[in-house]
């Protein structure tokens, strides 16, 4: 057998292979004779089936298997000989014509890029800093109260933050459009559920009155038929409900999981949970900066095969997420091409992180993994049970290991780049959560 590597553009490689037909025929005959010893056919005892019938029945399948095995072996030998790191699977192309005594093929494939890690010493990274104090705890408790607020009927005109109950009908060119009518429809003024013009029209109404007004939909409206179009609405205001926050008492504390209703304990638990959340968000910001630096300092071409594989996996994850939300994923075509850019970034980072870990011994230690799992478990009622849950499944442990390795990479980059502290506000860090 002969095999010759030919380099193509970028990461693509080609190996030409020639498999002698004589060797193929010998192997085919050996396998068919092996089959004939035990094969069963109607009218014959096991092992007594005429060889010609065995050839007629199994010859094509066996020949295909023999050729496939020969190509696989030749390809594997050449890859090992030249120490090639194959990315994805080879594309096998059969050559037509040529030597009549040989089967000639080409294997086209990609290899992993050679990564020469760049110097990050000149890169700047800001460490977000936020100390959780009583003011931050107070803000968080107010958020928790708002999440549990109730609405009570009031006899006045609606204001921002009120819930209103309305009937409405919308017409475009004199015809009611799809989704343009509703009865006993509720929304909170100021939350953005409805267009601002619609909210403004309702805010000036009195209970029991109706109003007609024109509304022009924005050019980027999600409904294609309504983008930039003007519709006529009729709205009847039926109820106004004012938000009422729950009092800060023992009942509220118990609703947050403090069994004895102690408000001091509640504050301590809120602060502990908030500190964990702040730590997680700061870590996420740091990690994003580090990954951006690594990509900028280490430009590379990623194997298309790995990008396609990652894109397909991301599309499948999206389908599972849709199904998990109770929707029919089959009616929502999700294409791998949608995820190509994100998949390429993931593949490049995966290759960079693997090289950094190998060259700088940044592997996750058992002690680090234990500490990470115990940190995860602290927010649960029975931390020990959560720890056992992680250690009971190799896949969950692999996920923890990946997180620890990423943290090790972040710490290594911070130690070798120029880093500085940057005070951030609570509202900025927590964003929509506040």
TrEMBL record:
For the PPIase FKBP-type domain, which residue ranges apply?
161-247
Q: What does this protein do?
A: Involved in protein export. Acts as a chaperone by maintaining the newly synthesized protein in an open conformation. Functions as a peptidyl-prolyl cis-trans isomerase.
One Pfam family it belongs to: FKBP_C
InterPro entries in the record, alphabetically? PPIase_dom_sf, PPIase_FKBP_dom, Trig_fac, Trigger_fac_C, Trigger_fac_C_sf, Trigger_fac_ribosome-bd_bac, Trigger_fac_ribosome-bd_sf, Trigger_fact/SurA_dom_sf
May I have one GO cellular component term?
cytoplasm
Query: Which gene underlies this protein?
Result: tig
Q: Which family does it belong to?
A: Belongs to the FKBP-type PPIase family. Tig subfamily.
* Notes concerning its domains: Consists of 3 domains; the N-terminus binds the ribosome, the middle domain has PPIase activity, while the C-terminus has intrinsic chaperone activity on its own.
Give the GO terms filed under biological process for this record: 'de novo' cotranslational protein folding; cell division; protein transport; protein unfolding
Give the principal location in a single coarse category: cytoplasm
Subcellular location(s) per record: Cytoplasm
Catalytic activity line of the entry: [protein]-peptidylproline (omega=180) = [protein]-peptidylproline (omega=0)
- Protein name according to UniProt: Trigger factor
What are its E.C. numbers?
A: 5.2.1.8
Keywords carried by this UniProt record: Cell cycle, Cell division, Chaperone, Cytoplasm, Isomerase, Rotamase
Its taxonomic path starts at: Bacteria, Pseudomonadati, Pseudomonadota, Betaproteobacteria, Nitrosomonadales
């Amino acid at each position: 057998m002969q095999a010759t590597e030919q380099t193509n553009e970028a990461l693509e490689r080609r190996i030409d292979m020639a498999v002698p037909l004589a060797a193929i025929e010998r192997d085919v005959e050996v396998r068919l004779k092996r089959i004939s010893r035990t094969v069963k056919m109607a009218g014959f005892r096991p092992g007594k089936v005429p060889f010609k019938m065995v050839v007629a029945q199994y010859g094509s399948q066996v020949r295909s298997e023999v050729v496939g095995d020969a190509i696989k072996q030749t390809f594997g030998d050449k890859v090992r000989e030249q120490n090639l790191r194959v990315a994805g699977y080879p594309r096998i192309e059969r050559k037509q014509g040529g030597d009549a005594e040989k089967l000639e093929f080409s294997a086209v494939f990609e290899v992993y890029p050679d990564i020469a890690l760049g110097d990050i010493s000149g890169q700047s990274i800001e460490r977000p800093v936020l100390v959780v104090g009583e003011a931050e705890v107070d803000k968080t408790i107010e958020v928790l109260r708002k999440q549990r607020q109730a609405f009570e009927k009031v006899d006045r005109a609606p204001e921002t933050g009120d819930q209103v109950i309305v009937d409405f009908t919308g017409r475009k060119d004199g015809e009611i459009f799809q989704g343009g009518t509703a009865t006993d429809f509720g929304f909170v003024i100021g939350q953005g559920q409805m267009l601002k013009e619609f909210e403004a029209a309702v805010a000036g109404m009195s209970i029991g009155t109706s109003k007609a007004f024109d509304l022009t939909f924005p050019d980027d409206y999600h409904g294609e038929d309504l983008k930039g179009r003007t519709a006529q609405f009729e709205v009847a205001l039926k109820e106004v409900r004012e938000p009422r926050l729950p009092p800060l008492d023992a009942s509220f504390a118990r609703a947050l999981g403090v069994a004895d209703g102690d408000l001091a304990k509640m504050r301590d638990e809120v602060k502990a949970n908030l500190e964990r959340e702040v730590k997680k968000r700061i870590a996420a910001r740091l990690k994003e900066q580090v990954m951006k630096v690594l990509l900028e300092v280490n430009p590379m071409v990623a194997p298309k095969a790995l990008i396609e594989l990652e894109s397909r996996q991301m599309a499948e994850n999206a389908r599972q997420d849709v199904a998990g939300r109770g929707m029919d994923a089959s009616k929502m075509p999700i294409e791998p091409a949608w995820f190509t850019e994100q998949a390429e970034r993931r593949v490049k980072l995966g290759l960079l992180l693997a090289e950094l870990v190998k060259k700088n011994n940044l592997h996750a230690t058992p002690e680090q993994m234990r500490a990470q799992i115990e940190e995860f478990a602290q927010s649960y009622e029975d931390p020990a049970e959560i720890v056992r849950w992680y250690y009971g499944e190799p896949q969950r442990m692999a996920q923890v290991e990946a997180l620890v390795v990423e943290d090790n990479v972040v710490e290594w980059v911070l130690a070798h780049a120029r880093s500085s502290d940057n005070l951030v506000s609570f509202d900025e860090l927590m964003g929509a959560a506040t």
